[in-house]
Design a protein that fits this description.
two-stranded antiparallel ribbon, single chain
Amino acid sequence: MGDRLSVGLSCPSCGGAISVSEGESSVNCRYCGSTLYIEGDNGVSTVAFKNRLDRNAAINALRVWWKKGLKARDLKTTGNITEVYPIYLPFWSIETRVAGWVCGYEEKHTTDSKGNTRTEKVYKEEMVLMDLPFSEIACDPGDLGIRSLRNFQGEASFEDLDLIPTFESTTSRDDAIEHAKADAVAKGRRSADVPNITFESLHVLVRKLSMIYYPVWVARYTYQDRMYIATVDGVTGQMLSGRAPGDALYQSLAVTAGTSIGGLAAAGGIMAAITFQSEIGIAGVILGLIVLGATYWFFRHGSEIIQGDFPDRKSMPGMKKGQDLGSYFKEMSR
């Protein structure tokens, strides 16, 4: 047996250091017992998580999801499941550390008693030091609506990767690392919270790199002669993604209520602005327009409920990812 060689790998399940013999393609982690598969030249540890769900559990998770939200009310009784099967999807799992400095300024506006507005620059110098997880799917997911890994914990499977149903990895290790570094820099920059950046120096270190084959149940079903697809997490039992028909009644009620509330808010704001020349009136107009915009968006896209990372998934116009209505309103009212 050859000498044990340290290749700088870490167990994706527990984080323990891994050492392997030259030429080995698999090894058991001495800390947690996980079976890891080593892809020689690339130095990438590979692990498959055990599928903890059976077919009935996956179907039950789908039926529970049918009952939630603004989906068609008769979906739970008329939806017809045509196909349910498990598949293992490959994900790049990368842990990075971003460190450095971000410098710049923010502008503060003050108004005196005479109505004169003064703008002052407040200079900021923020240090960044963060450990970040990153994942992205290592194959073309097609119409599954899954782009990244939600859960990084699972029991290692002892099955041969050549025998389990899986998608073949089609993306390179270098591309995954590049994407992870770009993600780390963007998150480090956001964490500094410097509105106007004049200088930044951020460096990213890749701490762990692994390939995780993750179990996913794929379900296909029909509703009123139309085909839909959904996926269930094979480890946690949670819904990962899916498309479902919306309910026409919910859609019409939302449009009626939204039009009424948005119209009243906008009209009241216009009257207040004209009568009292108040900023509250302007805020009312903006709020009314936001409500009307959201109502129109729901009218356009409420006929289908979408969960997951589908390319055609629509977000409300003007709303950035992760931005709530309060911050959006504050931004619009400036």
